[in-house]
Fold this protein.
Amino acid sequence: MIIAVDAAGGDHYPKNPILGALEAIKEFDNLTILLVGPEKLVQSELSQHYYEQSRIQILDAPEVVDMTDSASSALKQKPNSSIAKGIALHKQGHCHGFVSAGNTGVLLAASMFILGKLEGISRPTIATYYPSLEGFRLIIDAGANLEIKPEMALQFALMGQVYAKEIMGIEQPRVGLLNVGEEEGKGTELLNEIYVMLQQIPSFIGNVEGRDILVPKADIYITDGFMGNVVLKLGESLPGILKTLVWQKIKQTSSTPEMLRFVQQIFSEALAPFDYERVGGLPFLGVNGTSVVGHGGSSPTAIKNMIKVAIDCVEHSINDKIIASII
Amino acid sequence: MIIAVDAAGGDHYPKNPILGALEAIKEFDNLTILLVGPEKLVQSELSQHYYEQSRIQILDAPEVVDMTDSASSALKQKPNSSIAKGIALHKQGHCHGFVSAGNTGVLLAASMFILGKLEGISRPTIATYYPSLEGFRLIIDAGANLEIKPEMALQFALMGQVYAKEIMGIEQPRVGLLNVGEEEGKGTELLNEIYVMLQQIPSFIGNVEGRDILVPKADIYITDGFMGNVVLKLGESLPGILKTLVWQKIKQTSSTPEMLRFVQQIFSEALAPFDYERVGGLPFLGVNGTSVVGHGGSSPTAIKNMIKVAIDCVEHSINDKIIASII
């Protein structure tokens, strides 16, 4: 298996992508990594580590896409970026997948335009993991499609079911439509049309509300990318906010060092379900290839886990199964 | 000051509305309460308590609006409900405001149709308090208008500013537009049109993201009622979910009773900002009267705090100030 890694993506490049790649080759057998990025920069970081040299190669991509670059212009203005070259490499069959903690919009655009859409898919989507009392569940769409249509919602749900079943090990993933109330007929005309469309799915459980997400009442929450993005970022902000609130209280309380350690341990373990590092990232669903995107702040372990996601998607033939699932 | 209280609203009527009313007359001078609900039921609960009898009156409203009744039919089918009669009482000038923990949709419909809209307001709205590191802030709209237009968004922001200034004591409330990115131009065409409209407000700080809400980066977050409702209910579910996560960890850990008490104390105090009971409820903004709605599960203290909100709105002449603020 050959996975290409964006060595110029994310807030901590080239260090974190390279450290993540090194973790990955230690953990996964038969894996070769192509590091795509400015050659000298990558070489300089890589030379500081010991590793099995035959398993890591560098592909020069001198241009760097910034996190603020717009999807519409970055591909034209920076044709030699790590994203453009990495996805092209994948298109040409030189690797099985591409992994990036870089600019999501640019990666999505590159994946759609260079790799193309899977047969029968009207719009590719990006899902996000969301924490719950029973582990991560999926919210689709997480920002790729700010407005959605009923046909798109149905395809999102079907693609999400393939992913949840194959990669997350959820046998019959329940699909819920995020809405303002549980009863059929709640919400806008569009939400009602989506509801009717989703009824084609046997494990569609109907409307779900904001309070159901963390329970979790469904395994896949269908919504538009505006909602998905805001809810995702709100969730990501929670651990930091809660730690601050707890810390403020601790400072006001007299306690022994032993008690403080206990509180800190309980809290950090209780908040572990909110730790996005464990999953790293998710592939775009519906593109003709394996293109995994992760958080800009990804740690080396998060990058390693993104590489794992790419490997899993290839080994489980996710795309073939998505094509077969489309009604 | 005379405030009418829906004695047949919420999940725990008539008990909680009545206990809340009794708390209120103890705490606030010169306050008379009209309890609106099925007379015998209300009388039976009320007779179990000692109170200053001249300060609480009962108005019979034999029909009860259920939490699942639709706004469109409940007013026609149940003309003698506590909501219909309470709002009519207010319209006729027999009380200064009406407070209910009952069906939000029916109360909004009654408030709009019976009280009418304030001069110059295109659509009344409902705001929600949202917790943050610096106390509660406002999200508008919280579910009254699932789809919004730029003119509506501007009026929501102006009404929210009057409320935040007068009732929450925030001197120059910052207005943010909830979006998928910070830069101008992010989001849908509609979000861009709203952005341009909101630029008329001097303290408009631009787009804000999901991660900014709990910080808080703004004092008033403008969004549509679909987003507001989902984010509100997600926030309401958080304390329970976090308590479960902490409890699960504690059970797996060996600890002394003293340590357990310490963790529980720190935790419940740290989560206090998420406690909606402290605020009780919010008035509909833009209706020609004072109509305060609270959570169905409102405790007596939450009901008392809703009565306080109604008193504050009247004393601060919120509606006159809203009319004066509209551009």
